[in-house]
Amino acid sequence: MKVGLYMHSDPVTVSVSAPLSEAKRVMDEKGFSLLLVVDEAMALKGFITKGALKGVTDWEVPLAKACFEARFAVIPEDTLEKAALIMIDNQLVLLPVIDGEKLVGVISQSEILRALAHALGIGLEGTRISLKLPHDSDGKTIYRILETLDEQGVELVSLARGGKTDRYQELIVRAQGISDKDVLTQKLQAILQPE
C-alpha cells in the first residue's frame, strides 16, 4: 500500500509570502489547526499552526518569518507503514507528500486508518477468528492453520498479528465462506493444543 494511493492530492496551502492574517483567514474558513506553507512553485517551505498565531500583534508579518520547518515528509512511492511510523514517532496528525521539493499531497491519520481497515477487511462480511499461538510455536503452526482453512474451503480475507502476553501471541484471521464453524474450531484447536 503506497502513500500515493491514499493521499489528498490537492492540499490546502498558504503562500510563504502571504501575511499571517491570510493563514488565520484560511484556518478559520476551513476549520484547520495547521496549514502547509509553500512558495510559488509549490515547494514545501514549512507549516504554521493555529497555536502559533495566538498572541500575534502584527498580522502583516510574512509567513516566511513565522512558519516552522517541515522536518518530515514522504514521497508517493513510500509505504503507508513508513508514513504511519513517522506520524506515530513524531506525534503528527498529517504528513506532507513531496516529489522533489514540490508538495504533491498530504496523508493524514484518517487516510492511514482507512487504508489499514481496508487491508484488514474490516467492514466486509465475514468472520473474525482470534487464535492464541503459544510463544513456543514456530512458523509451521501458521502454515498448518492456513492449510486447514484452505481444506475447509474458507476464503482468507486477512491475517494480522494482534496482542501479545507472556503466554501467547494473538493471530487474527478474517475469513469468509465458513460452512461448518464447529468442525473448523475443532481442527484449529487441534493445531494449537496438540494432545
Strand-helix topology:
Elements: H1 3-6, E1 13-15, H2 20-30, E2 34-38, E3 44-49, H3 80-90, E4 94-99, E5 102-108, H4 109-119, E6 127-134, H5 139-151, E7 155-164, E8 168-176, H6 181-192
Parallel strand pairs: 1-2
Antiparallel strand pairs: 2-3, 4-5, 6-8, 7-8
Helix pairs in contact: 5-6
Describe this structure in words.
By secondary structure, this protein is of the alpha+beta class. The protein folds into two domains: 3-117, CBS-domain (Roll), CATH 3.10.580; 121-192, VC0802-like (2-Layer Sandwich), CATH 3.30.2130. It has helices at 3-6, 20-30, 80-90, 109-119, 139-151, 181-192, and strands at residues 13-15, 34-38, 44-49, 94-99, 102-108, 127-134, 155-164, 168-176. The strands form three sheets. A three-stranded mixed sheet has the order 1-2-3, with helices on one face. α5 (139-151) packs antiparallel against α6 (181-192). The longest helix is centred in the last third of the chain and has 13 residues, at 139-151. The mean pLDDT is 91.
Low-confidence stretches: none
CATH architecture of the largest domain: Roll
Structural class designation: alpha+beta
Q: What name is given to the CATH topology of the largest domain? A: CBS-domain
Question: What's the mean pLDDT score?
Answer: 91
Can you count the helices? 6
Q: What series of H and E elements makes up the topology?
A: HEHEEHEEHEHEEH
Instruction: Provide the helix percentage.
Output: 25-40%
